[in-house]
């Protein structure tokens, strides 16, 4: 699924993976939003995967966390981090509980921060995100990055 989201997102995406290093601006390659989950050992759009994500306030540090993959940019995956904490001052989309959280907590997609994920740095697949929740996350990303 291509979207009007693509043009306005270049420069907002942060690259992660390749070890514990600071985020870097992504190249201007074209972004492709798609839903194509396939639990085959390879990370795909529509899946929740676990990978290292740098902290926003200190990109030299971070932690392993679940990320919902919403598309691709060249050889990399495009995703948004999930959190179990709801924050009223942060743009989030509720995706509910899923098998990626062994405690069964509700998860929220942090739609303001887009991440480029090196597929080789994904630690494991967590689950397939239901299509309705995937569509909600993509719609949230579009709202979060709407240009005036």
Explain what the structure shows.
- The protein is mainly beta and 148 residues long.
- The chain has a single domain, classed as SH3 type barrels (Roll), CATH 2.30.30.110.
- Helix content is 13%, strand content 37%.
- It has two helices and ten strands.
- Strands 1, 2, 3, 4, 5, 6, 7, 8, 9 and 10 form a ten-stranded mixed sheet that branches.
- The N terminus is likely disordered.
Mean pLDDT across the residues is 82
* Strand proportion: 35-45%
- Known CATH architecture: Roll
Helix/strand-derived category reads mainly beta
Number of strands: 10
Whole-Å distance between the termini? 23 Å
Q: Helix share of residues?
A: 10-25%
Number of alpha- plus pi-helical segments: 2
Query: What's the oligomerization state?
Result: single chain
Query: Secondary-structure element order, as H and E?
Result: HEEEEEEEEEEH
Q: What do we call the CATH topology?
A: SH3 type barrels
How many domain regions? 1
Q: Which key terms come to mind for this protein?
A:
single chain; 148 residues; mainly beta; SH3 type barrels; 2 helices
Question: Summed up, what is this model?
Answer:
With 148 residues, the protein is mainly beta. Helices cover 13% and strands 37% of the residues. Strands 1, 2, 3, 4, 5, 6, 7, 8, 9 and 10 form a ten-stranded mixed sheet that branches.
